[in-house]
Amino acid sequence: MRLEYFEMIDRVVSLDRTGARIAVRSVVPAASPVFEGHFPGHPLVPGVLLTETMAQASGYLVLALRDFGVMPFLMAVDKARFRDFVGPGAELDVEAELTHEGSGYVATKAGIRTGGKRLADAELRFRLMPFPSELEGRMRGEAARIGLVGRDPAAGGPA
Amino acid sequence: MSSTYETVAGIIADTADIPREKITPEAHAIDDLGIDSLAFLDIAFAIDKAFGIKLPLEKWTQEVNEGKVPAEEYFVIKNLVARIDALVAAKAA
C-alpha cells in the first residue's frame, strides 16, 4: 500500500468471475505521511482509507468482469463498520463480491480481515461511466501491477 | 393508488429526502421533485431490490437524450409506476 498515492491494493489473490468475487492482499506500510497526522505518535489507518481499500477491491472486480469497458466511480457507502484499529505493518485480506448489477450502476459487499479477524466491512455502490480516455492506460497499468490481468484464469489465481 | 405507487413514493421520499406529500402521480421526478441523476440511481437501486427487477435507466436516458421518447414517459411518477408494473409482469411471465 502507498496510502498517500491511494494505491491501496498490493496484489490480487483470486478472481472468481463466475461467483463475481475478488480477494486481494495489502500490507500497511511501516511509515507514511498519513500517519504524521492520523495520529501523531499513534499511527492508525483512517477509516476513509479502509473504505477506499474496499472500494478499490470492488472497483477492480468490476473492471475485470466488464473487461475494462466501463469505469466504476464510488457513489454510495452503506453500513460501513470499522471494528478494530489498523496500524503500520498490518496484513490485510480484502474481499469484495458483486451483489447487484443495475442499469448504469453496481452494488458490492466488501470486507477486510487480518489473521481471519474482521476489521471492516461495507456495502458500496458504483456508478458505471464510459472510461475517461486519459484514465484507461493508468488503470490498466495498475491492474497489471496488482496481477488482475495477464495471468492464466485456468490457474485458479488472478485472471 | 396501487401498491406499486405507494412503494415507489415511499422509496423516493426516503431515498431522496423529499416530503411524502410532495410526491404525486403527476409529479415529474426531475422537474418537480428536483431529483438529480445520482439520486435517481439510488432510487433505482431501491426499486430494483423492492421489485426484483432491473430498471433500464441507461436505455431510458439514451432514448430521452436522443429525443426518441419524451422524459415524461419515464420520469412522471405515474408513468414510472406503470413501467415498473410492466417489468414485474414481464418477469413473472
Layout of helices and strands, plus pairs?
The complex is a heterodimer of chains A (159) and B (93).
Chain A: E1 11-16, E2 21-27, H1 33-37, H2 47-65, E3 70-82, E4 91-101, E5 105-114, E6 117-130, H3 133-145
Antiparallel strand pairs in A: 1-2, 2-4, 3-6, 4-5, 5-6
Chain B: H1 3-16, H2 37-51, H3 57-65, H4 72-75, H5 77-92
Folded structure, characterized:
- The complex is a heterodimer of chains A (159) and B (93).
- In chain A, 23% of the residues lie in helices and 38% in strands.
- Chain A has 159 residues and is an alpha+beta fold.
- Chain A has a single domain, classed as Thiol Ester Dehydrase, Chain A (Roll).
- In chain A, a hairpin with a 2-residue loop joins β5 and β6 (117-130).
- The longest helix of chain A is centred in the middle third of the chain and has 19 residues, at 47-65.
- Chain A is globular, with a radius of gyration of 15 Å.
- With 93 residues, chain B is an all-alpha fold.
- In chain B, 62% of the residues lie in helices and 0% in strands.
- Chain B contains five helices and no strands.
- Chain B is globular.
- Chain B starts with a helix and ends with a helix.
- The model of chain B has no long low-confidence stretch (mean pLDDT 94).
- Classes of the chains: A alpha+beta (159), B mainly alpha (93).
- At the A-B interface, loops of A face α2 and α3 of B.
